[in-house]
Write a structure and sequence with these properties.
Blueprint (H helix, E strand, L loop, with lengths): L13 H16 L6 E4 L7 H4 L2 E7 L17 E6 L5 E5 L11 H13 L4 E10 L8 E10 L20 H10 L4 E7 L8 H9 L4 E3 L3 H9 L3 E11 L10 H23 L3
Parallel strand pairs: 1-4, 1-5, 5-9, 6-7, 7-8
Antiparallel strand pairs: 2-3, 3-4, 5-8, 6-9
Helix pairs in contact: 1-3, 3-6
Bound molecules: 8-iodo-guanine.
The site of 8-iodo-guanine (8IG) has 16 residues, from strand 5, strand 8 and strand 9.
């Protein structure tokens, strides 16, 4: 094969590769259909153990189109989890970030695969920076909408997809029945991997953003294209640059995630059975 990765071939059909990946997941897990899928970002990985019983764990690189994660702290497995309500969840611990420069097809492959496994609900989680000063590190927030600052799209050609109510109001309401104190905000996806300058954070604030991150928006667009209902949640691991007075560090972000993971994992476990 002339390409290093099947999705790199411009002639490849990303939906056919996702369907093939879903078939492999069905075979490797013994679960023919999944009902719901979760992508676990920084700080959220503990949720995989708390939402139900893991019945199968697959190294992500055993499934077509998936690659090993680039960042320490991101777990490269796919898990099939039996929820207490009998539903089957596909837990994606291996996110490909846009900043890895493998192209947007590879960024959204996990979401397309989740849809091909039968999942009707996509839960997208991430670690992110907060613009609202009331959000201390460790605060989970619901994503109410996004601003895609990548200047890219997972859609190819004249594919016009409506993004009204992209982050389902229904699912946000369900989450708030579990924790009424959950705040929400608009997520701005930057390309990364650098964090923002304070001026860029002020720009994000001025255009209506509350959360800054490097994932999720492109994935949400692909999930909507695939017809899924989307719940987005950010763990605020740091205040965005210039909002907090100290410099940002990856270690700080990992540390905040570690401190919050049991709480937010338990929260997600309570939400997921109600969706
Ligand atoms: I965790 O402050 C995390 N991810 N863009 N900005 C951006 N991404 C992030 C940040 C942040 N914190």
């Amino acid at each position: 094969m002339p390409y290093a990765h099947p999705l790199d071939d411009p002639a490849a059909d990303p939906f056919a590769i996702a369907a093939q990946a879903a078939q492999q997941i069905a075979e490797l897990t013994g679960v023919a259909q999944h009902d719901i899928a979760l992508t676990l970002g920084s700080g959220w990985s503990k949720a995989a153990d708390l939402i139900g019983e893991t019945t199968a764990t697959i190294p992500a690189d055993e499934v077509i189109g998936f690659s090993s994660p680039a960042v320490v702290g991101h777990v490269g497995t796919l898990r099939s989890v039996l929820l207490p309500n009998g539903k089957r969840a596909l837990v994606i611990g291996a996110r490909t970030h846009y900043y890895e420069n493998h192209g947007v097809r590879r960024v959204v492959h996990s979401v397309r695969t989740a849809a091909a496994t039968g999942a009707k609900i996509m839960i997208l989680t991430n670690g992110a920076g907060g613009i609202k000063e009331t959000w201390t590190p460790g605060t989970p927030v619901l994503i109410s909408d996004h601003i895609n600052l990548t200047a890219d799209s997972p859609l190819e050609g004249a594919t016009f997809v409506d993004l009204t109510d992209l982050y389902s109001a229904r699912l946000r309401d369900v989450a708030r029945t579990i924790d009424a104190s959950l705040d929400e905000g608009v997520y701005c996806q930057f390309r990364g991997p650098h964090y923002e300058t304070p001026a860029e954070v002020q720009m994000a604030k001025a255009i209506g953003g509350h959360i800054v991150g490097m994932s999720t928006a492109l994935e949400a667009i692909a999930a909507r294209q695939a017809g899924m209902e989307i719940l987005g949640m950010s763990l605020i691991t740091n205040l965005a640059a210039g909002i907090q007075k100290t410099p940002l560090s990856h270690e700080e972000v990992i540390e905040a995630g570690r401190n919050a993971e049991a709480t937010i994992g338990a929260l997600l476990a309570r939400i997921v059975v109600e969706l």
